[in-house]
Write a structure and sequence with these properties.
Layout: H1 2-12, H2 16-27, H3 34-46, H4 54-61, H5 67-80, H6 83-95, H7 99-111, H8 114-128, H9 133-147, H10 152-169
Length: 174
């Protein structure tokens, strides 16, 4: 209910991207109560429906120090979503990639249980397969440069997970 109310508050303040993001998060929990679902759906409907790049729009308006909390909530929502939604979420993230965003994304992934982290990495690598070569190369470079900012145990865990899943999907990864 808190997320649905937050979506309503953002809507009332004219911040459609944040309203849609909060509404999607309210709807993303397992079996939201009917009043929560109705309120969140109404916010989405009044604000043009869920827009794929709302997360990036919100991050563009926030100082980098705030990204972690915003992304953590999105990873929780996306991790519970059906595979096609996870891939769509990952595609937006890939297309809007930067080293700074990749660092926050990887940090959020490392906080998740291992199976959830792997699910989201798999979704990203599946989505990566449909991108053009320049986008693929930029994303791989951003992830590699961002991963290098972590301590060695985390760096190795990330590298091993990306390599293993990429090999399973036959997606090149260095």
């Amino acid at each position: 209910m808190a997320k649905a109310n937050l979506a309503l508050a953002y809507e009332q303040h004219g911040d459609a991207p944040r309203a849609r993001l909060a509404a999607r998060q309210a709807l993303g929990v397992a079996e939201p109560p009917e009043p929560v679902a109705a309120q969140a759906a109404a916010v989405l409907e009044r604000n043009g429906g869920a827009t794929a790049n709302d997360l990036l729009l919100v991050l563009d308006e926030e100082p980098q120090a705030s990204w972690e909390g915003i992304l953590r909530e999105e990873l929780a929502r996306s991790g519970e979503a059906p595979p096609d939604v996870r891939r769509a979420d990952a595609a937006v993230w890939i297309d809007g990639s930067s080293v700074e965003r990749a660092e926050v994304w990887l940090g959020g992934l490392l906080e998740l249980p291992p199976d959830r982290m792997e699910t989201l990495i798999r979704s990203a690598l599946e989505a990566l397969g449909t991108r053009d070569p320049a986008v693929k190369e930029r994303f791989r470079a951003d992830v590699a440069r961002a991963a290098a900012r972590f301590h060695v145990p985390q760096l190795l865990r990330l590298e091993e997970t990306f390599r293993r899943i990429a090999a399973e999907l036959e997606e090149p990864w260095s």
